[in-house]
């Protein structure tokens, strides 16, 4: 009551004043403040982060009250940077700040769910049959199988218990292994760095049973093939703090403020330091507002712009004036001085392969790998020499693989960059040109398809008694850029206004960027690099890398950086940021993730080729080899289709395959084991005589289908599944929206080597398992959905390429409802598998085929032109002309015991990565002391890996990045190969061992390791290529240098020896439907782009209510005002976007910032929220990938060739989708499909009764 009276007298009460009346003293109660204190109080605060593929890797405070996560805020206790560098914190974004909504939302998967029709058949069978026999009885009954497969995507889940569901999964796995082989089981999970233990849980289980792990970096199109091509490195980039050291920032296709929010402050801060910023993007994006200059080339023409910038830099900084720093840098660190042979074809000289020591009499005295030692002219002696650093020095001898200015005999050399003034002759050399024609509204320049340009050459005597003409890479490089150097001839330019490829005037026509802007940016970029010794940087986004000819854009930009000496210099270089690819403690993680402690090698498969084959997108391929082949190549030598060349690459040992053989590898392994024969010899002979056949030659045969698939930590169908509707039709077997037909013989050619079956399979998978904390699109189409713990409910590890710290995911609360961590889920499946497998499996012997691997001696397998054993061009030889063959013993009953303990191979074989290895027995002993030993069972005495924290400690103990003692071993191992001492890079760290509890307390900076090309230092920010430049460690390429010339036969045949301009491809997906399925509204054709979005990280957060409240609350497509006017579309209208691949529906956002001719649908807006029905397919509108289909590129299939050799997520086909065009129109009828589902829908036709559907479209 007293408080009530106080309130009544509040305004009449006298108050003491102070500070001349500016302050008053009050004495009323402040109890009301307790309400706020209680609202913002917490029982505990726990450190965690978000295991999402955003590259942020931000440390967060998770507040818990009453056992409930109430909210999260950013941590601010990162280790401080040096005084002249801004600190990293605060790191975070609105998406991360909304994550706690998921824990208790309606979209949370709370219990194990199984499709009702599947569990009904299972339970009935289990009444009388054992688990494996029960699964066999229902999966071999076509009626029962069709009953659940055809219902995918249409609801019907029921709640089940963990024991029942894990038994079902285990039985399906055991049956599949026995009936078809373990390589018919596959798993897909992306980006281990975002939650390493969660990834390793599934990959460890699959590796122990012999299943396939699918790559993701290439499938996501995050992998830039230009990086392996140039540096022999998957991707290595500067941390974001190094932006602050830059003096010139070229932000190209990267929308930093929107997609790199935690790091954007460095971009903002460096501008206050005086750095200039130029943004290149076709749309006016957030980053453009930060820039001093915004260039907006037509989308897809970035390579043309990069080549024009390079033209100016070459002219002004390398030819008319030679900058000493640029000259010294390119002479030592690039392939510019190396000699290239010239071959005569059709009466003209063309650049051929690099000259090798083996080509010369006496091989220059090189007896070890002379086929892999490149040659240059020495200015000091005038002789030909084999400079150190090439791949031939890396393998078979020690101490010579470095970039010292010496040759193989130890003599000092100075390599000659140009033969100008020392030539035997000036000869016209032919270069391919692809810009004479272009599809859609891209500009064709009308130049011929072969450009003859004069080059200084020398004649060199060869080992066969003849001679060959040679030129330096630099001379050919300048000729490729169309520079007149006084050698005469045509197709070269003396000025920038000449219409010669690749002048600024030419680029203005192609890109729309004014030539003066091109000249200005090139001059400023190079002059800054000259004055600062390389502190000019290019920050790249994923957008450029999603075009079919992405490597042309990237290699053009990389060439610009290399010309200016920027790579490997702090504040300079190539900064390609996409997914959270940087798994910093990589060598500690690999043995855990792929069970390398128990068996080697694991089965890996490149995701793009897998999905291209098994979603049958190859049956709809319209791109012909002749369209992308170089005009200098003989088209008669290149018959067949893309799937033919992918199959060729697989059988030649270039790419992996899954499944591998048309036979069960366990049956084959049993016969080999019983006979005592050499597995490699048996398989090679079987391949030769046809008794053993690659599965890739008949992917649609039921024996060669993938049968069981696990998806976890991913959303393939809602985010990354290019060709979404083909997934639904052929792999999943559900209702789909494919509009086109695979019988269109005018557009589609049948393959020559790969079998064509007139009836394409529908629904290849027997069992589809998804593990997620939310009901995503992939969950909806799965047979089994398992509830996993959220990022605040489990223990895990997280790193990023954007900063040098390692972060934990911590269990702030126990998993809600019946959710479990990924580690516990796969441990439970492994336990059940060990229980049910003995019914049909024991100790088995598995024939495993492995492609020729990068960073192994095997990468020297095929030094010259490749030969195909299937065509009779050579004999099949394992590890040389076909995949390597290994007989792997698998103890299936011990799967669980091995899953939860460390195997003996780390002590026997050691550990390592990227071509070096070291002894790790001491670390295994320390780990046993830390985690304890297994008390009983078949693995008694081995170190335990029972819990997720045990798994974290395993990684931290084994990795040089988190164990200083191991770092010293790793640097010493590298020093033996290079002949140089690198131990100082980890000096003083030998006693440092980061434990899980350490990073829970505070983020920890990792230790410098030879796994990476930069260093962790208090003086230098991490910068890729730093150790190559400053420690003289070669790049892991054929030349050991930054390789701007790619001399592989296939690279030359497809015209990509040098970076060049290649217009986007014509996917031929709109002409069949434009105007054919009218709804009364105008139709326009647009190029559809799918950049990363503001309100989600891929598909995560896209259905988060907080994020939906900040945007339009459903799918949207951005179009320009001009295009909207032409189509009669107003802002917020419902529109339909479609082509032969499928259709999607969305709201239109009409904006001035979008350039005419393009449409933007931000990536991974799930079709689960506010999506209306399609007038084309008669179904719910699709996702952004409903209108896409994969187009693979033959040059990405190359293997067995030094840096162009396979590695998991290192090199391989990528899933490009930016060349796609669509029809856009306003919808005439909006249908929310809120009626009862049509149970009689025709699955094989792909459409329900509503709408026009594919039957009409096919007409």
Automatic annotation (TrEMBL):
Q: Which NCBIfam families match?
A: narG (TIGR01580)
The family note in this entry says: Belongs to the prokaryotic molybdopterin-containing oxidoreductase family.
Cofactor(s) this protein cannot do without:
[4Fe-4S] cluster; Mo-bis(molybdopterin guanine dinucleotide)
| Taxonomic lineage | Bacteria, Pseudomonadati, Pseudomonadota, Betaproteobacteria, Burkholderiales
Enumerate the spans annotated as 4Fe-4S Mo/W bis-MGD-type domain: 43-107
PANTHER family to which the protein is assigned, alphabetical = RESPIRATORY NITRATE REDUCTASE, RESPIRATORY NITRATE REDUCTASE 2 ALPHA CHAIN
Q: How does it sit in the membrane?
A: Peripheral membrane protein
Annotated protein name in UniProt: nitrate reductase (quinone)
What catalytic activity is recorded? nitrate + a quinol = a quinone + nitrite + H2O
